Amino acid sequence: MKRRRHTTEQIIRKLAEGEKLLGQGQSIEEVARHLEITESTWHRWRNQYGGMKADDVKRLKELEKENTRLKKIVADQALDIDMLKELNRGNF
């Protein structure tokens, strides 16, 4: 199978289509083949995005991006505090 990246909207759409096919009695093997993904990808997507709508996924990605930015700010502040403590001790 050729490797490709899927957008979150495509993943949600494929999960919905896959659930529909599963409801019709097809096996996970057949569903994965129809969606042109591996079974492990199906399970990973289902665990990560199962039950979400496209808007929920967009919001999740935004929150993860903001969380990363805030963690970087906290790390920078911790370095500044350590530096100031070192300067205050006179060990410069």
From TrEMBL:
<dbReference type="GO" id="GO:0006313">
    <property type="term" value="P:DNA transposition"/>
</dbReference>
<protein>
    <submittedName>
        <fullName>Transposase IS3/IS911 family protein</fullName>
    </submittedName>
</protein>
<dbReference type="GO" id="GO:0004803">
    <property type="term" value="F:transposase activity"/>
</dbReference>
<dbReference type="GO" id="GO:0003677">
    <property type="term" value="F:DNA binding"/>
</dbReference>
<dbReference type="InterPro" id="IPR002514">
    <property type="entry name" value="Transposase_8"/>
</dbReference>
<dbReference type="Pfam" id="PF01527">
    <property type="entry name" value="HTH_Tnp_1"/>
</dbReference>
<feature type="coiled-coil region">
    <location>
        <begin position="53"/>
        <end position="80"/>
    </location>
</feature>
<dbReference type="InterPro" id="IPR052546">
    <property type="entry name" value="Transposase_8_domain"/>
</dbReference>
<keyword id="KW-0175">Coiled coil</keyword>
<dbReference type="InterPro" id="IPR009057">
    <property type="entry name" value="Homeodomain-like_sf"/>
</dbReference>
